[in-house]
Amino acid sequence: MRTARRFALDRVPSWRVWTKRFVREWALTVVLGVVALLACAKLGEDVFSHETGSFDEAIQSWIADHQSPPLYFFFLAITYLGSVGVMIGIAIVAALWLWRRRSRQVGAAALIAPAAAITLFQLVKQLFARARPPVVGHLLLGTYAFPSGHATASTAVCCTLAYVFWREGFISRRLAIWVATLPPFLVGVSRVYLDVHWATDVLGGWSLGLLVAVLGAALYDRNRRREAKEATGS
Q1: What would the pLDDT profile of 187-228 be if each residue is shown by its tens digit?
Q2: Phi then psi for 171, rounded to 5 degrees?
């Protein structure tokens, strides 16, 4: 009976095996990556062709009508905590901790996200050269708006770390979801509330950060499977 079952499994078409493995290991990564890439492309196209003005100005006007001192100082604190420098520091500490507790490859996955995010949003900023909202334009001379560096870095780092720490068993899935979504959301909202970015700058940053996080997660999964194969000798 066992011989017959093994023979039947050996006769399973290779494309079925490949499909099952793809769905199990890569489907979610590919879907999220495609969604993030399409969102980046669409936002970039709209910003480049100046089609986001009415949307951005409507959001800016609504926030200006609902400003309050407590919220202003709350989001000011959030924007400092979500700065690129702080995100890099968090990623470095997490990478060193993961390196010590797990392996060099696992720690490297945490460092790739901020490095890639900073490189990408700086390149895209120079490409679009979009002016910031005029109220603070004179305070931020020499820097461009699209995409938001805060939104990009916080999304890339928080999503990547949440995924790695969940897969390594250090945090629960529910906590990982909160870590991946709440900090980037608050950081992005803070940039619009403080009137240092247009709303579409933040949307672009979230999309770009998610794309970086997906690539980081894919690299982590690849290294994880390779380590598993080496451990079993297969």
Answers
A1: 999 999 988 889 999 998 998 888 888 888 877 777 666 665
A2: -135, 160
Residue in the block written with tokens 């000798």: 233
Dump pLDDT digits (tens) for 27-71. Answer: 666 677 677 777 777 877 778 777 888 888 898 889 888 888 899
Read off the pLDDT of residues 131-163 as tens digits, 9 standing for 90 and up. 888 765 445 556 788 888 899 999 999 998 998
Distance CA 26, CA 47 (A): 31
Residue type, 194: L
Enumerate the H helices of the chain as residue ranges: 2-10, 14-25, 27-48, 53-65, 69-81, 84-101, 104-128, 149-167, 173-193, 199-232
Count of beta carbons in the 10 Å neighbourhood of residue 86: 16
pLDDT tens digits, 172-195: 989 999 999 999 999 999 999 988
8 A C-beta contact, residue 198 and residue 133: yes
Which string of b and e fits 30-41 if b means at least 16 CB within 10 Å?
eebbeebeebbe
3-state secondary structure at position 53: helix
- Residue 208, burial from CB neighbour count under 10 angstroms (0-12, 13-18, 19+): buried
Q: What's the CA gap between 185 and 163, in Å, rounded?
A: 17
- Give the torsion sign (CA, 112, 129, 197, 39): negative
CA distances from 103 to 95, 98, 168 (A): 10, 7, 11
How many whole angstroms separate alpha carbon 94 and alpha carbon 46? 36
Q: Which amino acid is at 79?
A: T
